[in-house]
Amino acid sequence: MQKYTSLQKVALGVVAICAVFIVGLVVAFGDDHQAREQQKDAAEKIERNCTDKVMAFTMSRNFVKKALAAPSTVDFPSFTDDGVSASQTGRCKFRVSAYVDAQNSFGAMLRTRYTIDMEYLPDSNAWHGSNLKM
């Protein structure tokens, strides 16, 4: 078994302390970097949803569907079809105008135009619809 001198013991202690310090820095800055990346990704998602007219239209269909007599019969147009528009009215706010084909309570298929105000709520990552006019 090898015996260490006092100087060697001090040197080993310094090396051990430096190693622990370096590992601590790597862990601390690695976690900080990951947290910054997650915050950046979340901010980018909020910005996308706050300016995404197609998503506003897509989410509006859920609110329209709930207001229909026969929601299982709905046929919505695509965003690029004539008669469909969405405009941004403020930060994370939109006005969607479109139509839906669905059966009425008598079973007749009707086309109904609608407008709805949509808002993306970043804090809850949810969409809210209001002022639905059909």
Low-confidence stretches: none
Order of helices and strands: HHEEEE
Overall 3D geometry? elongated
Give the strand tally: 4
Kindly describe this structure.
The protein is an alpha+beta fold and about 130 residues long. Helix content is about 45%, strand content about 30%. It has 2 helices and 4 strands. Strands 1-2-3-4 form a 4-stranded antiparallel beta sheet. β2 and β3 form a beta hairpin. About 10% of the residues are buried. The model has no long low-confidence stretch (mean pLDDT about 85).
Summarize this structure as a short list of keywords or feature phrases:
28% strand; alpha+beta; 2 helices
Summary of the model, kept short:
With 134 residues, this protein is α+β, with helices and mostly antiparallel strands. It has 2 helices and 4 strands, in the order ααββββ. The chain has helices at residues 6-51, 53-66, and strands at residues 85-90, 93-103, 109-121, 126-133.
Layout of helices and strands, plus pairs?
Blueprint: H1 6-51, H2 53-66, E1 85-90, E2 93-103, E3 109-121, E4 126-133
Antiparallel strand pairs: 1-2, 2-3, 3-4
